[in-house]
Amino acid sequence: MMMKEFKTVKMKTLTMKKCSLWKKLGVAIAIPMMLNLQSCEDSFLDVVPDNVATIDQAFKLRNEAEKYLFTCYAYMPRNGSLIHNPAMLAGDEMWIPDQRQALTIYSLDIAMGNQRVSNPYFNAWDGYYDGGGPGDGYNLFDGIRHCNIFIENLSDASKVPDIQPSERERWIAEAKFLKAYYHFYLMRMYGPIPVMRENIPVDAPSEVLDVSRDNWNESIAYLVELCDEAIAILPPSITDINSELGRITRPIALGLKTRILLTDASPLFNGNSDLASLVNKDGTQLFNTDYDAAKWELAADAALTAIEAAEGAGHSLYEFPGSGFTLTDTTTQKLTIRNAVSERWNSEVIWGNTVSRTGEIQLNSMSPLDITHSQNNARKVMSPTLKIAQQFYTKNGVPIDEDTTLDFSDILELREAGAPEKYNIKQGYTTSILNYDREPRFYADLGFDGSIWYKYDSGNDETKFHIKGKYNDYAGSNTAFFFNMTGYYVKKLVNWNQSFGESSASYRDYAWPELRLADLYLMYAEALNEVQGPSPEVFEYLDRVRDRAGLDGVQESWANFSSNPNKPNSKEGLRAIIHQERNIEMAFEGSRFWDIRRWKEASREFNEPIRGWNVFGEDDASYYQIRTIFQQRFVSPRDYFWPLAENTLLQNSNLVQNLGW
Question: DSSP string spanning 214-235?
């Protein structure tokens, strides 16, 4: 009987009441696939269930089956949310005030070393503490269960008789992609998990219900298999942009396959002897700890295929097309960098997550730019750390501690901005030398005391708005709840059409970019360098990203300006360059947190102090002092993976805890 189809990972026994609830959930929680178009007002694809009582009825007609497909989509993680994306605040990239009255964000507890086995923070396994999306209502094992139900029913040709065969195949492919993505999301957090190839009947014996964790390599192979099955069917692009933007395409599936294989090839999962003792209760080893160089080859091949598919579908690195305003090259370059992320459905966005909107993250990134702007309407709490500000290159395209022509050894030294700097820093304003002579991405992505913030309502006056961030200033940290912690602000995530009214602020929403073409280029360069070391092709894809950012190529920059000119000539040196390039290009997009972990660098990076400027200073002398906000503590190998909740382990005797918890 179809109604007995049910997946469980943590529970041995289920009440009839809960079974009834799951019956209803099969179709009752389908939510709108929100679409945001460049050329028109916001529109929505409203998916309102017609009170369908059973799963069988959900697959009688095409319209009802489509609603169930959107239920599968509804579980996509809200990565464009400061609250629901752990990668925003669980690492060292940004910090926020630890003021629970203003914002309760459990990923900050992880960054502060407060993770726990009793009611773990950001528990995506069970769907608690914001690990299950809004209202803890979208935990991913539920999403996987819905995908399995959809795939099984739509694969039955006797069901949904009014659907075209090609559409049936496409919808099944979308559900397979989502199933692979939800598994991968959990595996990055927890390591090996029980892979739910099929749903387990609720009346199955306990030895069947009590599933064990699956071997990592075998699980990766299954996810790749799902991706390949989806890739063979999915369309290369969305043609019906009025109703289908956000649906999965072939380049998206190829991109996910690349990300899965790159993660699998990385040091945390490839040859990591620290994980040798993680075994199931029957002694089955969950990680193969022998290094396998072939994994990098698979990742490189997948990345190149994904790039070719994306470019073949019309994707390209974004370039600001200009506007009706007269802008300098400096401002145009910054808009090119910012809009690659925040401009709706631009040419670079391969995968836009329409379930995850960005109004909240823009509100918490934006700074007041005038005395009349309310700090409640531009909360500025997302505060990049001093370490992240220092990681951006100099104007010569090399790290600040390698540039032979510039000296950043004493960042407490202050300097007054002159005419040459006026499109980046307010002319006549005094700020740290750290904020001078930096690459375009520094000024595009970051705001700081004295920095110019160009947006649409600036018009031709490119220097109309600038930040005043000292304690008593309009962007200062002088409010009870919403204040900046480090003296740096996130400009990158705020769409340039943002505007202030007399007592309000307007933010132009966009679908969160889960995958950009620049990301694929950098993944390919990373994997290819591990396969063959420095090569013209590795430099080509690195330099495509750098050229768009207004920088010379790697070899030219290091030869002319670095104290270590031979660094790009070895695999190890180029690896370090690729890692830094990725940290810069993908800054504030939730990439660094997972990259640092898969590179097995968290025990170094996440054990350093969180620092910023003294935002409580009222003048230059007191403001430009380095303040330690928090001393992070990362325990290896324990903190590389989330703990399973104690309750989950009690309810399923075959599950084992992650190491160290």
Answer: PPHHHHHHHHHHHHHHHHTTS-
Q: How far is CA 321 from each of CA 303, 431, 614, rounded to the nearest angstrom?
A: 28, 32, 39
Strand, coil or helix: 194: coil
The pLDDT tens digits for 25-71 are: 333 333 333 333 333 334 333 333 344 447 889 999 999 999 999 99
Q: Which amino acid is at 203?
A: D
Q: CA 529 to CA 164: how far, in whole Å?
A: 45
Q: Note whether 55-314 and 316-589 share their fold.
A: yes
Instruction: Report the alpha-carbon distance of residue 389 to residue 433 in Å, rounded.
Output: 12
Helix (H) or strand (E) holding 431: strand 430-432
Per-residue tokens: 307: 């790039």
Q: What angle do CA 599, 605, 609 make, to 5 degrees?
A: 170
Distance CA 183, CA 196 (A): 8
Token pair for 423: 């499109």
Using CA atoms, how far residue 565 sits from 568, 578, 585, 629, in Å, is 7, 15, 22, 35
Per residue in 187-233, pLDDT (tens digit) is 999 999 999 999 998 889 988 899 999 999 999 999 999 999 999 99
Cβ atoms of 494 and 103 closer than 8 Å? no
Residue type, 654: N
Token pair 């008789």 in the structure block, residue: 161
DSSP 37: -
Is 425 within 8 Å of 417 (Cβ atoms)? yes
Angle, helix 140-154 to helix 62-73, in steps of 10 degrees: 150
> In angstroms, how far apart are the furthest CA atoms of the chain?
76
Tokens of 64: 């009802």
Give the CA angle between residues 348, 441, 529 to the nearest 5°: 70
Angle at 80 between CA 182 and CA 363, to 5 degrees: 160
**Is the CATH code 1.25.40.390 the one for domain 316-589?**
yes
User: Do the Cβ atoms of 591 and 519 come closer than 8 Å?
Assistant: yes
Identify whether the C-beta of residue 262 lies closer than 8 Å to the C-beta of residue 299: yes
Amino acid in position 598: R
- Residues 541/523, Cβ–Cβ less than 8 Å: no
Tokens 């132009």 belong to residue: 508
Residue type, 344: R
pTM here? Answer: 0.93
Q: Which CATH architecture has domain 55-314?
A: Alpha Horseshoe (1.25)
Q: Give domain limits for the chain.
A: 55-314, 316-589
- Reduce the DSSP state of residue 35 to 3 states and report it: strand
The token duo for 27 is: 């179709």
Query: For tokens 């901005």, what's the residue?
Result: 417
Q: Which long-range contacts (CB under 8 A, 24 or more apart) does 551-554 make?
A: 551/393, 551/397, 551/439, 551/440, 552/396, 552/397, 554/397
Count helices and strands in the chain by DSSP H and E runs: 22, 14
Over the range 175-208, which residues count as b (16 or more CB within 10 Å of their CB) and which as e?
Answer: bbbbbbbbbbbbbbbbbbbbbbeebbebeeeeee
